[in-house]
Each structure stands twice: as C-alpha cells, then as structure tokens.
Design brief:
nine-stranded mixed sheet; 24% strand; alpha+beta; disordered N terminus; L-fuculose-1-phosphate Aldolase; 26 strands; seven-stranded mixed sheet
C-alpha cells in the first residue's frame, strides 16, 4: 500500500487493504466554506499519497462535485447521470457530492422532520419538498420511522442532489463535522471539534463551534472515502452444473419453508420496505448509474439433499418483497467462484432464474472455516454446514441473552471505517467474525443463534440446526421470547454490549 498514513491524535485502526486512488474535483454550486473545505480536503488526499487530477479521465476513481443544501438539482446537471458524457469517459467513476449546511439550517431541518414523524398518523403534506415526486412522502415517512429524522433527511438530500454518496459538511465559517451518506442509509460522522450536543435523541449542531484539529478531521474523511473506493463488488455470479429437474425442485420442502420464514419475520417487523428511486424523484433510466431500487435484506437456508444454500434473489434486478417470497424469488447457491468475484449458482428447470442476493458470497463463504455436522433428523448421517439459516437485514440488536445467543464482532477497523454491502471487504469481515464464534466452532455449544453487527448497514443473524424446528424458527422464537431484541436503529460506529441488571447484554454505542 502506497498510501501515506500519519500518526493521528486519536488513533483509529484502519484496514490493511487500502489502495492509492485517483480523484478529480468538478465543482457545482458551492459556498465560501465549501470552497475552502474542498481545497483542504484535496490537499489532504495529496499528502496521504493519492493522485489529485486536473480533470476526470478514464483512470479516475472518484469525482468530487458539489450541490446546494435542500435545493433540487436538475438531473442533467447531476454528475451521476452526466459525468461519462460530459468528460467523455469509457466507464463510470464513483461520484461524491459535497454539500454545505449551517448548524441552524441542519437543526431546523431535523426539527421539522422529527415533528412531522411524531404525528399519528403522519401528514404526507409535511413531507412535501421541492424536486420530489408525489409519492415521495411515503418513502420519507417509512425511512424516518426506521432510522429517525437523520435518515429521512438523507433520502431527501440524495433525491434532490441526484446523487447517492453525499458528504454533508456542517459549519458556519469553518467545518465542524461531516456526515457520510450512502445508498444503504449509513450516516457516520467525522468530527472537527465537539460542536454537537444531544437533545431529543438528535445530535445537534452548535453555531460557531470551533474546529480544534482539522488535520485529524480531513484524515478521517480521506480514510473513509478511500475505504469505500478500495472495495469491489462480488456479484459476478456464475451458473454451473446441470439444471435441477423441476420434479426434484418440486419435492423439496425448503422453498415453502423460506416462504413461511418471510411471513413470520414480516409479522415481527424485521424487513424494511424497498427503496425505489422512482418513488422519490423523476430521473431517466438508471441502469448505467444505479439500480432502480434498493433491496431490504436477504435470507437463506441450507438444503441437505441439494447440498446447496437456497437464498432470496437480488432486489436490484427487479422488485422483490422478502415478506412474500414465491418460488421464482429463490436462487440455488453451491459455492464461490475460484477468483472470489461472485457465487456459483445452479438453475432450476422451467422457471425464471434471477441472480441471488448481492450478499450471496458472504452467505455461502462464511461456512468455509466452520465445521460440518450431521443433520439431526437424517438417518444416514447426512452432513451439512453447522449454520443452517442466515438472515441479513437493515436492523440493529438492542440486547441479547448470552446464555442462548452469541455476539460475533467484526474486526476493529470495520467499526471506524465502514465498508459497503455486496463487497469482498464485507464478505471477508463477516467470514472472519463468524469463524471466531465459539458457538459455531463447537457444535455442542447450547447457544443456537449467533449475530454480528455491520455498522451503518445492519445485522447478520444465523442459527444452528435445532431438531423439530423449521428454518429460521429458532430465530423468530428468540425474538418472541426477548432472547434477541431487534431494533430499528443501526449503530454507525464503535459499539459494545454491557451486562444489564437482568443478565442480558445491552447495546452501548460510542458517539
């Protein structure tokens, strides 16, 4: 790695696989603060060994641009849609939009959303903003109820700026903080000082807060951005083997069990609604820039007879309601490509065969370092991975009973410098976390459920084989009994679980 890292005042562990990146700045509407911020940020990139170009080219990894706060930008101006044409590029680089907001503007925007979300039922008129389509209030309400005012604001700004990745810079004359917004709804914060105070569950910006160490501030932003650019998606799935005969597939009980699991988890409010771009803003075809919708999670269970993982298909190709799974919403995963760029899948005769979920690699590859066990009800000693079922969703875990559930944390860098979904970095981190699980390494360990938190993203929950239970039944029964308390909010950074008065481990989040 040729990236130069200096010793920071507050040392945060970074990933070992960061690379040197190339970037260019193509400013849009800006402010005096944002002009200074952009210049200082670019200088930090240079000092850390990255390549800042005069203008975008085919070797550009990232284009920085800018947009006004809470004002709609015409899609023809948005680089997410126009960069390739405007700069005559052969491929689409990542676009990151800088946006400046003053503390009082941010507080007012969050107050408005918090007040509107508190109404029962919410008034769609409270969520009518410039540049959005008529059905957008429903999306903002759903997102706000899941992640609070900050998530509703994030979706609003993304829609108005016509960009998924935003860096919201807070400050008057000097930056105080910067929020990192992305597709999955993450909103971690880089702080320049201590200008934020809690009130009513919202971290509030203090006007005039002094920036103490801007060098550490810019370092943190650079490392977060470079972490994202250093990862790659592992979604180049490959079809292998002969198609599964339709009669064989029809005899399997796994598809029906998956359908029931979707309904059971929906009854417990686990799945969030799919975010559809067209329900927020009117833009042209999205194939080149971004998928038309963003899925709300995935789940999978092992089929012993097929020796395969039966998983939900990707929601980025077409809308998939995980709460109402049908036969055509399932894919068969049998392994990982030798180069690791995607999963190996088998098709089923006589039906559509859409690709598996974007998390397919992480779901199948986490079994590799773990033991195999005998299926409890199989008379012939049929072997299967120790993990029977896997559930991935955009939720957090507020508490758990350590006698029945184990928490398997990711490696420390993942809590400070977040990685994106569907990437080899996330798959590698999840694989390592579950490989350390005592409950999974020892099949006789009585704990049947293990989970890991993905900061800024959600949770992965797995269950072992439990006799006389259907796939995912151990998970939903643990939810019902309070052994695993799932909550809406997803931690955005470092976290731990501390022993509570009733013996359960309770979430503690570092701000």
């Amino acid at each position: 790695m040729s990236v130069i890292l200096r010793a920071q005042t507050l040392v945060k562990p970074s990933h070992s696989w960061l690379r040197t990146v190339s970037l260019a700045f193509a400013p849009g509407p800006t402010t005096p603060l944002l002009e200074v911020f952009a210049a200082e940020l670019l200088d930090c990139f240079r000092q850390r060994g990255h390549i800042v170009q005069e203008g975008p080219g085919d070797d550009t990894d990232l284009i920085l641009t800018s947009a006004p706060f809470a004002e709609p930008l015409a899609w023809r101006q948005a680089l997410l849609f126009s960069a390739r044409r405007r700069f005559r590029l052969s491929r689409s680089p990542t676009i990151l939009t800088l946006m400046h907001v003053r503390p009082n503007e941010l507080n007012a925007a969050l107050d408005r959303l918090q007040h509107a979300l508190a109404k029962e039922p919410p008034d769609p008129g409270d969520f009518a903003y410039p540049g959005l389509v008529p059905q957008a209030p429903h999306v903002l309400i759903e997102q706000g109820r899941r992640g609070g005012p900050i998530l509703a604001l994030q979706r609003l700004l993304q829609a108005q700026a016509k960009c998924v990745r935003l860096l919201l810079v807070v400050g008057e004359d000097r930056p105080q903080a910067a929020y990192h917004f992305d597709l999955v709804g993450a909103y971690p914060r880089s702080d320049a000082a201590e200008p934020f105070l809690p009130r009513n569950g919202i971290r509030r910006a203090v006007p005039g807060g002094a920036a103490a160490d801007l060098e550490d501030f810019y370092d943190d932003i650079v490392l977060r951005v470079v972490t994202t650019l250093s990862t790659a998606e592992v979604t180049r799935h490959e079809v292998v083997g002969e198609p599964i005969p339709r009669t064989t597939w029809g005899q399997r009980t796994t598809p029906a069990a998956m359908a029931r699991a979707g309904r059971e988890l929906d009854q417990r409010g686990f799945f969030t609604e799919m975010v559809r771009i067209a329900d927020l803003v009117a833009v042209p075809a999205l194939d080149e820039a971004i998928a038309s919708q963003y899925s709300e999670g995935c789940f999978a269970t092992w089929d012993p007879e097929l020796q395969a993982l039966i998983a939900t298909v990707t929601g980025s190709a077409r809308p998939v309601d995980k709460r109402r799974i049908g036969d055509h919403d399932l894919a068969v995963i049998v392994g990982v490509r030798p180069d690791g760029l995607g999963a190996l899948v088998r098709h089923v005769q006589g039906r559509p065969n859409d690709p598996p979920s974007s998390e397919a690699v992480e779901m199948i590859d986490m079994d590799a370092p773990l033991p195999r066990v005998a299926v409890p009800w199989a008379a012939d000693g049929m072997q299967a991975p120790v993990i029977r079922s896997k559930l991935h969703g955009h939720r957090g875990v507020a508490s758990y009973d350590p006698a029945r559930v184990e928490y398997a944390p990711l490696d420390p860098p993942y809590f400070h410098y977040l990685v994106s979904c569907a990437t080899e970095a996330q798959a590698r981190g999840i694989k390592a976390a579950f490989a350390r699980s005592q409950a999974l390494r020892d099949p006789h360990d009585p704990r049947a459920i293990v989970f890991s938190i993905l900061p800024g993203h959600g949770v992965v929950i797995v269950e072992k084989w439990v006799a006389a239970k259907e796939p995912f039944q151990a998970i939903w029964e643990a939810m019902d009994a309070g052994h695993l308390q799932v909550e809406n909010r997803v931690p955005q950074g470092p976290l731990s679980y501390q022993a509570g008065p009733d013996g359960r481990m309770v979430l503690s989040v570092e701000d």
